[in-house]
Design brief:
- With 181 residues, this protein is α+β, with helices and mostly antiparallel strands.
- 18% of the residues lie in helices and 45% in strands.
- It has 3 helices and 9 strands.
- Strands 6-5-4-3-2-1-9-8-7 form a 9-stranded antiparallel sheet.
């Protein structure tokens, strides 16, 4: 072995002994799946939404599952509205305008963003994010990459398609605030 090769091997050995070299990532398939009734979680990610005519955009999202029937969703980015917050209580989706609860369809968005918000099944996206790709009429949902966070198997990448729209979600970080139920 050459001096250069010997030095390289020595550096790798020192790094490995000090725990600086990761040889493999945790296998998500061996971790338990996050229970579907889990609450007290928050995540941050990005979504790319494309309509059939190639219009669309990306948005940053923060999603919190506060209770089994309550979500808080914050969307920011170039989807046409800057930043806004959406709330889910049971089957109802709404936003707050000057302290007054308003139906989601009254949210002042440009036409493209309004089409996306009307088409996307926000009531179900929370379950997709937890790793349960329920497919409502016309939607195909697939978890394309998993990750292990705090011992739980959770999605990293999700793809959802329908004839007129495609959505790609990437979850960048997870936080679990409450005990999983």
């Amino acid at each position: 072995m050459s001096k250069r090769g010997l030095r390289f091997a020595s550096v790798l050995l020192i790094l490995a002994l000090n725990g600086c070299v990761t040889t493999s990532l945790p296998d998500a398939s061996t971790a338990p799946k996050l229970p579907q009734d889990s609450i007290g979680w928050n995540l941050q990610g990005k979504a790319a939404v494309t309509l059939s005519d190639n219009r669309g955009g990306t948005v940053n999202l923060e999603w919190s599952r506060l209770e089994a029937t309550r979500d808080h969703i914050r969307l920011t980015g170039p989807l046409g509205a800057g930043a806004f917050e959406v709330f889910r209580e049971g089957e109802q989706l709404f936003w707050i305008d000057e302290g007054v609860q308003q139906p989601l369809d009254l949210l002042p968005l440009n036409d493209e963003a309004q089409t996306i918000m009307a088409t996307l099944p926000l009531k179900l996206v929370g379950t997709w994010l937890m790793g349960y790709p329920d497919s409502p009429a016309g939607w195909e949902v697939e978890i394309t990459q998993w990750q292990v966070i705090e011992g739980w198997q959770v999605p990293r990448k999700i793809e959802a398609y329908r004839d007129d729209i495609s959505v790609r979600l990437v979850v960048l970080s997870w936080e679990f605030e409450a005990a999983h139920q």
